[in-house]
Amino acid sequence: MNAQLNLDSNLSAPDDFYEALIDAHQGLDDEQSRMLNAQLILLLSNHIGNLAVLREALSIARANAGSTAR
After folding, report:
1. Cβ(57)–Cβ(5) under 8 Å?
2. Which of 4, 5, 8, 32 has its CB 3.0 to 4.6 Å from that of 56, i.e. a possible disulfide?
3. CA torsion, points 54, 56, 58, 62, in degrees to nearest 10?
4. For residue 14, how far is the Cα from the chain centroid?
5. In this structure, is the dihedral angle defined by the CA atoms of residues 29, 35, 57 and 53, taken in order, positive or negative?
6. Digit-coded pLDDT (tens) for 3-49
7. How far apart, in whole angstroms, are the C-alpha atoms of residue 26 and residue 40?
8. Helix (H) or strand (E) holding 42
9. How far, in Å, CA of 64 to CA of 33, rounded?
10. How many other C-beta atoms are found inside a 10 Å radius of the C-beta of residue 9?
């Protein structure tokens, strides 16, 4: 199976998800927020399960990380 990363908008309620993500970070210090993000990444990666798709996502995220203003 040669799956590809879906880059099309696929969230049924993106604003609701964003709000839930922000709410999940409320009251956490920086270290706890980093841990939440790491755990979320691992949980969703496990759900995806396809290493080729995950590598594609990592590659795109890495390329985009260099283009963001800090």
Report:
1. yes
2. 5
3. -170
4. 13
5. negative
6. 899 999 999 999 999 999 999 999 999 999 999 999 999 999 999 99
7. 15
8. helix 30-48
9. 21
10. 7
Q: Which residues contact 27 (CB under 8 A, 6 or more apart)?
A: none
Write out the two tokens for 9: 């908008």
- pLDDT confidence tier of residue 2, bands split at 50, 70 and 90: low
- b/e 55-70 (16+ beta carbons within 10 angstroms → b): eebeeeeeeeeeeeee
Rounded Cα distance between 44 and 63, Å, is 20
